[in-house]
Every structure is written in structure tokens, then in C-alpha cells.
Amino acid sequence: MELVCPAGNLPSLKAAVDNGANAVYVGFKDDTNARHFAGLNFTERTFEKAIRYAQDRGRKVYVAINTFPQPKGFDRWKAAVDQAAAYGVDALILADIGVLDYASSHWPELRLHLSVQASVTSAEGISFYHENFGIRRVVLPRVLSVSQVAHVITQSPVPVEVFGFGSLCVMVEGRCLLSSYATGRSPNTYGACSPASHVRWEETGDGTNTRLNGVLIDHYGEGEKAGYPTLCKGRFQVGEHTFYALEEPTSLNTLSILPELKKMGVSAIKVEGRQRSPAYVAQVTAVMRAAIDQCLSNPDDYQPKDQWMDELAEVSEGSQTTLGAYHRPWQ
Amino acid sequence: MLDFYQQAADSAADIIYLGEVICSKRRLVKPEDWVAIGNELKQGGKEVILSSLTLLEAASEMSSLKRLCQNDAFMVEANDISAVHMLSTAGKNFVTGPSVNIYNSRSLKLLARKGLKRWVLPVELGLETLRDLQSDRPEGVETEVFALGRLPLAYSARCYTARSHNLPKDDCQFKCLDYPDGSLLKTREDQPFLVLNGIQTQSALTHQVLDLFPNLVSLGVDVMRISPQHSHTMEIIEIFDAARKGAGLGPLGEKLLSLLPLGACNGYLLEQAGMHFALEGTHATQQAT
Fold first, then answer.
1. Which of A97, A183, A188 lies nearest to residue B107, judging by beta carbons?
2. pLDDT digits (tens, 9 = 90+) for A147-168
3. Residue B249 needs a FRET pair 20 to 30 A away by CA distance; which of A163, B23, B214, B289 works?
């Protein structure tokens, strides 16, 4: 069971490698990847260093080119594929049918993974990408229960990677347009959700308002810690009630079900968070490495340690974690 | 429900999409009933398409999808790539709905080779991109635009309607039946923002392209999709029918606005936030300056 960790810059990549990631995934400095944030991601120069650092230590580098190009931008996505391929990356993580078609026909030897952004939840869907583009791994969206993941694995023509830790998308990835409805920019088109360019923090007489392109996402009273206004994690009114109508600010944490994931044949565990700090990457990678090692060596006696849970909670949204859709009652 | 389809049969609509696309637990109309309704509509001269579920999770949903794709009476609208695969490997032609991501010509062409006969522009894309896609459109593929309705924005494993009643999805008690137009989500400043429709999240405002009708026609759009609302759907069809026959858009637009539950938006088509409402003229001026 491979541990795949995020890196938004070179220090994060080193942190992932040094703390035991088997593979690190990165993106270029433009809208070809789904973490298109200011100050993040790799230029050609840092990319070269990143690949050398990881591969010299026997680790893999995957490049996420997982947004959806429109006709005017398509050449940028082709250039990203070509650049990654030329540097000898271990795999590309792709979502768009057109980009997959380009990559598989121009770089037939290059290993392709199907991004979570492709929004594929069934073996039937995976087969489409396997037969047409020869994908060799799929990353499943965070909408399936544990038993549904197990079922997909039994039928899937390729190995399956799942999310193990990090910020939780509550909508099926690749088909969520909430962000562009409010701001004009979505993960699909722009590579960012609830983009910082549209965020406003407002001190009011009785606390803080957080807005996204003018829309009030949440209000925090005096002394209440204000969170980033991710659209699906605000408090809204439905009927008589004001509450986290879609989801609380919380992170996914699968430490408690690692043995189950292993047993059902999950091939890789992904950590979310290319936008997070090198310290986050180091801490989460170290905990996940220790947990996976223990789970692999002694699955029957495996128990997540309190210390691991505490360390992950520290770097979680709202300091709380959930099993998300893996756990049926969450749904 | 059946009244609705009776009215649809008598309406000016040329094509009618049937079926449950959101939640497999909604079975007020069973698959065989959809086929029966479809047969009646077809006899009345309508083109009928059976629509597939958008987010597939359970094995039982895959079995239903398989049966749907095996039907020989009607073409299927694939709302997920699973359906695209089933239909293309069976050698059947198909339509893709707005939740199948076709953002560029290379994707459109590949799916055309698989049997795509009509596609719906993803709702977050604008006129510029539509123009580029139309200029390079493969032979024999029709283009459809989501012309009126609350925007389908997101799908989740979680049922938000059940959640708003503090119920888990497995014990949803079919609460969504109480909200035929969905359940309104407002900001804490009372701004209507989204609508909860079970596992789907929609826009609170109704996306409408009436003001841009001439632009869409000049771009060679073949089909305009009207997504039904709880009331006034037939009047809305009449408005769009009048527009295609050349009636003045000003008065039609005013009448249309009066029929929508909470007002209109069209920002997506003008490369803006989807929730905005802008006129093409204003936009063109802004672009020029």
C-alpha cells in the first residue's frame, strides 16, 4: 500500500520524501492543476530539482494535470504533459478526456493515473479510461462507502488509490461547480475552489464576516475562530435553522480503517494538501507512514495511536476529523 | 406527475428527456413506467430520451443503469461516464448530459467516435468557449444548451434534504417529496443562494438564456433545454417557442421573469460568476473598453 503525499513547493517535497512518502504529487505553476494558488507549485527549474531529490532516494514523482482545458487553453495542457514526460516523471495524474487522449497517443509508454477530478465511481467508468487511454491506476472520489470501494476494487481493471487524509470535498470531485457559481472560477476551469482572490474578511461590531465574492459564507462571534470561507463549509439557513448545511469545517482521517482498506486491496493512500505548509506535509507524512507500517506488519493488532490522532487533528480543518462517506451514517 | 407528461405531450417541446437522474431511492415512477410514458410521447410525435443517474455508488444502481442502457426503444442520455462506456461498447448511439465533462474539441471528437449524437454544454462554460467548440464540431453531433432552470451545481454522497431534517440518508423518510422545487438555502443575510435537492445542490436563481437566444442561434445551437420547475413549465415552453419563432424578446423576458421562483441569472454564458445576471450588450461594452 503506497503512501502518496502532496507537495506545493520544494521544501514540502523534501518533507514528504524525508518522512517516508513512497510517491509525491506536484503541479506546475498554472491552471493545468487543481491547486492553482498564488505562490504555489513548480517552475521548470524547481521541478527538475524536485524530481532529482525524490528519484535519487527511490521515490516516485507524479504530476497532476487534472483540470479541464477549454479550446483556447488546450496548448498549455499539452505543454504541461510534454514537460512532465520530458523530465521522466513516474506518472501523470489526468482527468480530461482530451488531455488523456493527447498524453496516451504522444507518450504511449508514460504511466497515466486517472485523477479524482475525472469523477469516476464505478468499475464500468474505470474501464472506459482503461480501454481508451491505458490508465494504470484510478483515484476514487470521496463519495463511496467502505463497502462500495471494496466492490469497485473487485471489478476494477486497474489498481485503486483512495484518499486517506486531508481537507474533505463533500461533493463528487470534477462535477462541483459551486465555486464558479459564486466567483466564476471552479476547480475544473481554473484549478481552485473558493479562490482567495474573491475572499473578504470583514470585522463587524460583533465579530467577523467571511465572504466569497460578496456572498456571506459565515459569521463568527467575538472569540470564535474564523475559518477560510470554503463555500461548502459555511453556515447557512435552511428552513428555521442556521447550521453547517453542507458540511462542517473538518478533515478526512482514515487511520481507524487502514486495515480494512489494506484487506480490500487498496493500492495507494493519498494525502490531500498541496496548498499546505512543509510542516503539515512533514507531520502528516510521518504519522501516515508509521500507521501504514504498523498496519502492514501487524494488521490484526493494529490500533490507531492516540498520539497519531492528536497530531492529525492539530493540522485538520476546525481541528476535527471524520471518516466522511466511507462511514455510512455520515451520508 | 402523469398530468405533467400529458401536458408535455401537448406542448411545443420537440424532445422530452425522461427518468430519474438524482436519487435511486426515488421510485414514484418505475423504470417500466418511464418506458410506457415514453411510448405514448413517441406516438404523439415527440423524440424521447431516457436519462441515466448522475452519481453512481451502489451495485444496485449499476444494475439499473445496465437495464436502462440495454433498452431498445429509446436513446439514452448518459450522465456519467459509466453509461458512456456501456452504450459505446454495445454499439449504441447516445446523448451526454451537462454533467459529462466535455470542455474541449478533442474530448468532443473522441466521444463522437464512440457514438455521441448530441451533447449538452457543461453549464459553467460560456459563449466564447461554445463558439470555439462549435467551429470545430464533429459531423453528425448536435449541440444542446441548458437554457432554463436552476443550475445543477454539485452532487454528493450525502443527502442534504435529509440532513436538514437531521436524518441520515438511509432513513431519509423521502423528505424531498415535501419540497417539489427543492429546499432553499439562504445566507445568514437572507440572500437566497442555493437549493437542496436531495444529494444534488442547485442554484437558487434560475439560469435563463432568453436574452442570448439570438447569440445561441447564430452559434448553431440545435437544442435548448428547459429544466422543469414545479409550476409554469408549460408557459415557459411557450415563451421559448415564441422566441424561436421570432417574437420580441423584451416582453417575453418580462413574462418569463414573473414565472421564476426567485429571479434569474445567466453569468456563466458571459464568462462571469454563474449567479450574476448580465446582458450581452453590457458585457460587449465592457469587453471593448
1. A97
2. 999 999 999 999 999 999 999 9
3. B289
